[in-house]
Write a structure and sequence with these properties.
The chain has a single domain, classed as Glutaredoxin (3-Layer(aba) Sandwich), CATH 3.40.30. Helices cover about 30% and strands about 20% of the residues.
Amino acid sequence: MRYMNRVQAVVLVAAVIAGNVVAYGQTKPKPAAAKPATKPAAQALPQLVVYKTPTCGCCTKWVEYMEKNGFTAKVTNMPDLSAVKQQNGLPPRLSSCHTTLVGGYVIEGHVPVEDVRRLLKEKPAGIAGLAAPGMPAGSPGMDVPNSPSYDIIAFDKTGKTSVYATHR
């Protein structure tokens, strides 16, 4: 069977043509215009949803600090944050001046960016959020030279706490 008969040749030609029509007839994506260099999608950070009082300058500084470190923020100014804190399970003893929701976690007060990034990356079981109770001097937004060290506290939904990080 060295030579194809005419029917086989016609079928073969028709199959090749049909294959080419299907392959080349599909919509091909147009090349994208050159975009400025950005972080890879794998490093995309979730948006911060920040609740603060309208007159709190240190909270504004913390938001600016987080934005300089790659986060975006949606800020809501409210005269009283107690309902937000309570609805999100923040133990009252860990309260600070602003409350942030990000990636399913509660971030209370002036928590440093490296702790927020670590939390979002590691996703430790049982942790509901992190807090910088009070307004620790030396924390982001509360920049005071020669400040004492302070702890970032992890908490769960039952109110159990542990030290997550210490900053000097």
